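User: Hello! My lab partner asked me to get a predicted holo structure for this protein. The small molecule is flavin mononucleotide, SMILES included with the sequence. Please write out the structure tokens.
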Amino acid sequence: MRGIILYGSCYGTTQKYARQFARETGLPCFPCKQADEARDADTLVYFGGLYAGGVLGLSKTIRSLPNAANMRLLIVTVGLADPQDPVNVQNIRTALQRQLPKDVFSRAQIFHLRGGIDYSRLSRGHKAMMALLYHHDKRLPPEKQSAESRAIVETYNSKVDFFDTEALGTIRRALETV
Ligand SMILES: Cc1cc2nc3c(=O)[nH]c(=O)nc-3n(C[C@H](O)[C@H](O)[C@H](O)COP(=O)(O)O)c2cc1C
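Assistant: Hello! Below are the structure tokens for the protein in complex with flavin mononucleotide.
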């Protein structure tokens, strides 16, 4: 296997997962801006932070790789909302389906990890976006709340870290299974 890890991370949690996975598997690991490194790979493990439902850097990375159509692709999303929640997982997958060419999406193995957030480190734009979401979500009646809206309300303006190396085991086992 000529495997490689690429990641799209804004504040470092996804990078931390990707680097830990690289230590556990021995695969080389690069930020998605260095997607060129994956040109000769036959297996790509892409770790991407979730931003407004999209996986950071994924579409651009796939478009830039001429060998994407022939690669084995494992996609790992990293978000604040609980990935044990089936509706959250369904929403992430629906968004992924829109981000990727049909054949790439249908072949990809998809995994979900929980990241974290530290409001003191957010850019102005991201702070403003989260404030809008918070003021909207905190008024939602219980039947309209989602894992995402609950995560935003519960963690607003604070620092939380759900980083969990154990969660990488499932992805490692999937990678080892041909
Ligand atoms: C502007 C903004 C939008 C976000 N959108 C989502 C989202 O749609 N779903 C989710 O689960 N988490 C969302 N998050 C939380 C991030 O996915 C989470 O902080 C993740 O750990 C970020 O990874 P990074 O540190 O590698 O950038 C958002 C965070 C910010 C700041």
